C-alpha cells in the first residue's frame, strides 16, 4: 500500500501527490469529511483508462499522456459501498435527462442558456473503471454534486445507481444511498477497497493536468 504524503489544506484528507482542486472540488472534500472517515476519501485521482488487454498496466516509469488517464474528482467509501463523485460548479437552473448528450444551464431568468456535457454520462466511465478493479459485487454509486447556487429544476431518467444533488443536499443524498445496502462491506473490506484504488493511481505532471483539461473540453465541445 502506498503512503499518503500530502494533506489537503483545511481538511484531514491526505493524497499521494499535491492536488490541484477546483473551488467546487474543495467544497466537495470539505463536505465529505463530515460524512466519511477522512482516511476513506480519495481526491483528485488520475487512473489508467481501460485497455483492450485487461492485463496491461501503466508503468509509472514510462511516459504517459492525459489521453491514457481518467481524472476522478473524488471517491469515498463506507459500509454502504463506494461513492464516485463528479462536482459541477454551475449556478442557475439546471435541466437534464439521463440519456441525452447535453444538459442545459439557464441564467438571468431564462435570458441566457448554456449547454454542457451530461455529467451522468461523464461519471459513468469513472464508475466503470472502479468496478473493473473489483471481482466482488461491491455497491458502487455515482453522485453528481452541483454548487449551492444551482437549482435542479427538471431532471429525468437518472439511473438507479446515480444521484444528482446540490451541495446543500449532499448529506441527505449520501445517507439515503448508504441505507440501500447498509452493511455491504465491513471495516476490513473498506480498507482493502481504499488500498486497491489507491495503488492504481498515477502521479500526474503539470503537463498531464493541462492536457487532461484540454482533452475534456475538446471532447465535450465536439460531441453532437
Describe the secondary-structure layout.
Elements: E1 6-7, E2 14-15, H1 23-32, E3 41-48, E4 69-78, E5 81-88, E6 92-97, E7 102-107, E8 112-117, H2 119-131, E9 140-146, E10 150-156, E11 162-166, H3 170-178, H4 187-199, H5 206-222
Parallel strand pairs: 5-9, 6-10, 9-11
Antiparallel strand pairs: 1-2, 3-4, 4-5, 6-7, 7-8
Detailed description of the structure:
- By secondary structure, this protein is an alpha/beta fold.
- It has 5 helices and 11 strands.
- Helix content is 28%, strand content 30%.
- The strands form 3 sheets. It has a 5-stranded mixed sheet with strand order 3-4-5-9-11, sandwiched between helices. A 4-stranded mixed sheet has the order 8-7-6-10. It has a two-stranded antiparallel ribbon with strand order 1-2.
- A hairpin with a 4-residue loop joins strand 6 and strand 7 (102-107).
- The protein is globular.
- The model is unreliable at 52-64 (pLDDT under 50).
Quick structural summary:
This protein is α/β, with parallel strands linked by helices and 224 residues long.
- The amount of beta strand, in percent, is 25-35%
**SSE arrangement, N to C:** EEHEEEEEEHEEEHHH
Q: In DSSP terms, counting alpha (H) and pi (I) runs of 4 or more, how many helices?
A: 5
Percent of residues in helical segments? 25-40%
Question: Reading side by side through the largest sheet, how are the strands ordered?
Answer: 3-4-5-9-11
- Rg to the nearest angstrom? 17 Å
Q: What structural category characterises the helix and strand content? A: alpha/beta
- Average pLDDT over all residues: 86
User: Globular, elongated, flat, extended or rod-shaped: what is the shape?
Assistant: globular
User: Span between N and C termini?
Assistant: 42 Å
Quantity of strands, as a count = 11
Low-confidence stretches: 52-64
Profile the largest sheet: 5 strands, mixed
Amino acid at each position: 500500500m502506498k503512503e499518503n504524503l500530502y494533506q489537503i489544506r483545511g481538511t484531514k484528507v491526505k493524497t499521494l501527490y499535491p492536488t490541484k482542486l477546483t473551488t467546487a472540488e474543495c467544497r466537495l472534500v470539505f463536505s465529505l469529511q463530515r460524512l466519511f472517515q477522512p482516511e476513506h476519501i480519495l481526491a483528485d485521482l488520475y487512473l489508467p483508462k481501460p485497455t483492450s488487454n485487461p492485463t496491461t498496466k501503466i508503468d509509472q516509469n514510462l511516459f504517459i499522456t492525459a489521453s491514457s488517464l481518467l481524472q476522478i474528482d473524488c471517491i469515498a467509501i463506507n459500509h454502504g459501498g463506494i461513492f464516485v463523485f463528479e462536482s459541477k460548479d454551475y449556478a442557475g437552473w439546471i435541466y437534464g435527462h439521463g440519456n441525452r448528450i447535453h444538459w442545459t444551464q439557464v441564467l438571468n431568468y431564462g435570458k441566457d442558456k448554456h449547454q454542457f456535457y451530461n455529467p451522468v454520462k461523464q461519471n459513468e466511465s469513472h464508475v466503470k473503471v472502479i468496478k473493473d478493479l473489483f471481482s466482488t459485487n461491491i455497491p458502487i454509486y455515482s453522485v453528481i454534486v452541483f454548487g449551492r447556487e444551482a437549482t435542479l429544476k427538471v431532471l429525468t431518467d437518472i439511473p438507479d445507481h446515480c444521484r444528482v444533488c446540490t451541495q446543500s443536499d449532499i448529506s441527505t443524498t449520501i445517507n439515503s444511498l448508504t441505507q440501500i445496502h447498509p452493511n455491504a462491506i465491513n471495516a476490513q473490506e473498506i480498507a482493502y477497497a481504499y488500498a486497491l484504488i489507491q495503488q492504481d493511481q498515477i502521479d500526474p505532471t503539470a503537463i498531464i493536468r493541462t492536457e487532461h483539461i484540454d482533452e475534456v473540453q475538446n471532447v465535450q465541445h465536439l460531441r453532437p
